[in-house]
Structures are given as C-alpha cells and as structure tokens.
User: Fold this.
Amino acid sequence: MQEEQELPKGWEVAKLDIIMTPVRGIAFPKEVKAHAPAEGYLACLRTTNVQKKVEWDDLWFVPKKFAKREDQLIKHLDILISTANSYELVGKVAQVHEIPYPSTLGAFISLLRVKSPFDAKFYYHYLSSSTVQESIRAFASTTTNLSNVSTGKLATLDVIVPPLPEQRRIVAKLEELFSRLDAGVAAVRQSQQLLKRYRQSVLHAAVTGALTSAWRTAHPAPAETGAALLARIRAERRAQWEAAQQAKNGGQLPLNGAWKNKYQEPAAVDTTELPELPEGWVWASMRELGEVRLGRQRAPQHHDGPYMRPYLRVANVYEDRFDLRDVKEMNFTPEEYEIYSLRENDILLNEGQSLELVGRPALYRNEVPGACFTNTLVRYRVCQQLLPKYALSVFRSYLHTGTFQKIASWTTSIAHLGADRFANLHFPLAPLAEQAEIVAEAERRLSTIDALELTLAAELKRAERLRQSLLHRAFTGRLVPQDATDEPAGELLGRLTPQPPLQKRGGAKAAAAAGAAEAPAAGEGKRRGRPRKVAAAADGAAPEVAEAPLPVGTQTTLGF
Assistant:
C-alpha cells in the first residue's frame, strides 16, 4: 500500500478516475484473430505486448467491429495496464509512444487515458513506481495462477496531484536522469550479449579441438587415440550384451556360438557432410557411447500409490542447472524405478520444448536422491570411457549452434528432440586424456564468464533500485524545486470540478439530495430529467455508471 505521509505544499490527492479514464479491453472469438494486418482489421495488443515499453511484434489482428466504442481505439500517450496476469505482473504499465497500426486492446489489459490538462507522462511514471504497483496489486482478486484487477477498482485508487508546472518539471528531470540510467543499462546488456557469445565460442572451441590445440602440440602421441577408444567401447559394449544374454538364459546357451550373431552393432555415423576433426579424434554416434532413454509418461493412475517417488520434468531442467523449487511425485513400481531412476552423472535433456531450447542439457549430480524422470526429458547415461562433463560440453554446444534444432520435429508451439533421432546424432570423440583437458580448460573459462554475469546481473538490479529511488523522490516532492507561483493543485481541481452549493432552503433534505447525486465529468454540463438505468455490459466488462440528475442550482464537489 502507498505510504501515508504529508503531501508537499500545493499537492492534493484525488481518485484515479478524476485524473484519467479507465477503458476495458475488447472481447472477441478466438477464431477471428489473424497474425497479419488486413483491410477492416485492428491490431489487438495483449499482455505480452505490455513490457517496459509497448512491443509491437507478435501482434494479433481482429475485425474492427469488435471495438464497439471510439474510446477502445489506442491513442498517443495512452497508458496500457495489465489487468489479468500473474500476481507479480498484474498492474504492469507501458505508455504508447508510437502506433504503427490502428489498434485496440484485448480483454486482459486496459488503458488509462489521462484527461487534459494533466500530464500523461507524469502519471505513467507515477503508476510504474513500486509503491503504486503494490497498491494496484492490493486491489487484485487472485485465483490459483491468475490475478485480476477491475477497472472499477482502479478508478478508486488514490493518486497524487501536484501543480501542473511541477508535474512537467518532474517529467523533464526524470527523463534527463533516466536517459543516463538507460544508457548505463544498455551498456550492461551489451556486455551480457558479448559474454553470451563468448560462452558459445568457448563451448564450440571445446568440441572442435580449438580449445586444446596447444595441448595437442605438447602431447603429440596420445596413449590411446579416439579411434582406438571407440574400438574399445564397441568391444566392451558387445561383451556386456553377451554377458546379459547368458544371465538371461541362466548360462545355458548353445556351444556353437551362433547366438552371438544376433548382436546388432550400432550403425556407424555418416561423416560425408561432417567437418574434419583434429588428429586423434573420431566421429561416433550417441548410441555407441551411451544409453539413451525417454522418460515415463505421466498418467492419472500414477498420481498415487505405494511407491511414490520424486521425478524431474522439463520445467526442472535448465542449461547446466536444475530448478528444484517445484519437484513433484509419482508412483514408480520397483520394476519401473529400475528403468527410470537417475544416477549421478546422468545427463538430462529437454525432449519437448520451444525450438530454441529443445535439447537443453543438465548434468545430474544427485540433487534429488531417488528421483526418476518423465517423457518430457531424455536421459543420456554415458559409457565408462566417456567423461560426463565432456559430453555435457558437447550437448551445450549443440544447443547453441542449432544442432539439436536441426534434428527436432516441431509444430507451431513445441519442438521434440526425439530419443531415436538423438541416439543417431554424431558425437566428436576425443582421446580420454584430451577430454579431461577440455573439461578443465572449459570450466576455467566458463567460471570466469559466470562470475562476470553475476556482476552484470547485480548492476542491473542496482539500476532498478536507483530508478525506483528516483521515482520515490519525484513523487514525494524531493526531486525538483517547488515554485511558489505555481497554481496549487487544489485550485486546479476546483476549477475543473464543480463546487458544492451554498446550503439555503431545504436544509438537510437538499444537502442529502446533493450528496446522493453523481458529479458530471469535467467539462460536461448538468443534466436534467430522470436518471438513466445502468445497463449490464454484454462482454462482462464493468458497466458504466449513469449520471444522476442534480437538483436545480446545486453542484457536487470532489472529496479528498
């Protein structure tokens, strides 16, 4: 809630609807929306377009007939406010400074149109301050995952009213200070992008051999080349298969050994279009170097049972880290647990995800003991001759170079990595000693990048705190000097708002009648006759309140 403190001299407090007009967004059937401009259509802004500024990409377009009133068309300096969103984002505001298409707004946002002569930029800054944002959220009605603020409640929000010249001085000072602050923020964000590209180049260098070229010069004859290592992996893979067959049959297998011919060697990788690797390296397939497993599907019958276990899903797996704030449980029988359990050094990759994030990998370090995983993830369990951290470096490089995107199947909204497609993907196998060197050198460089990114993130938070500090100073009268010649806000509001009548004949009854009447909007004349009834809005929007007639010769006043 807003702090209660003494107002600067000449300032007043008014209800929001005295200063600006709230306008609800439009409702329309989902099937009428289009994704490109067309004759007879309006751009329709949504919550996704209300960021720190209005973003005009990812627009919907709807037939203009659904904007039934002129005030539902967006105008210059309108303030857009998210009125249906998560609790943290409801009340978020952005101001319109350009209108590339004739536009309206969807049902989850509203607009606040500042009335003349008040300064629209001043009230945009005011509404974006953290104190006012908290007050708006306090109005919200919240369900499980959605908070809603009605325009009716917004209209009752208390807002400050400085003298008009002071509003303009505050805006000018804020814009001056924010331009310098924004330049600093832009420099930090540019540095973040440079670090992002440097991270990608480190990972790319790791899996192409560029990172260890000097090391190879100093170690020209590895004890075991990549080709020799791959041959050993293949031999051990076959030996494990034969041992498993013998165990399955109780050791009773034909003596002629014909059963061994049933073993299927993984297909070799087609290297025709693959780049040349450093000397001593070799191309292999994911299937040759480890076990690929898709997780178990969620289903209602698994939601409870005697073997409830934690499981990880795509929402938990980020690049080289896990988000464990929301780990769910599901029933896995002992047999299922044997198949879908996670072991330390398993690598989990996003199987179903947006196209740019499909394949996002993280190395499991037993963060959730006894955990399993769902079919939104692929588990890769490396063989003993492959370092898990080296495999992770390869997967992170594939994420950033688009390799995973190229093999993914995707629809409009989601891409699938595919366990089989992933298993057949190529993998640059370096000698074991060089794998260890790659991991050490990559970790050294990436840890430096991580530290710099933390520093830059802290700078952005500091910039936001400074921004809010400036807004607080502005709206407590401490940012710009006051001018004794400014017309006080009370006088301004008095001129714009009808004054109360002098009480004459009629006494209490006349006063009661005047107090019960609605004040006309600024600039409108008084109405006579019977009051109009309030009609319910067809689209569920808050109804507009009809004006009640004023007794002849009486007026109402704004109460502070």
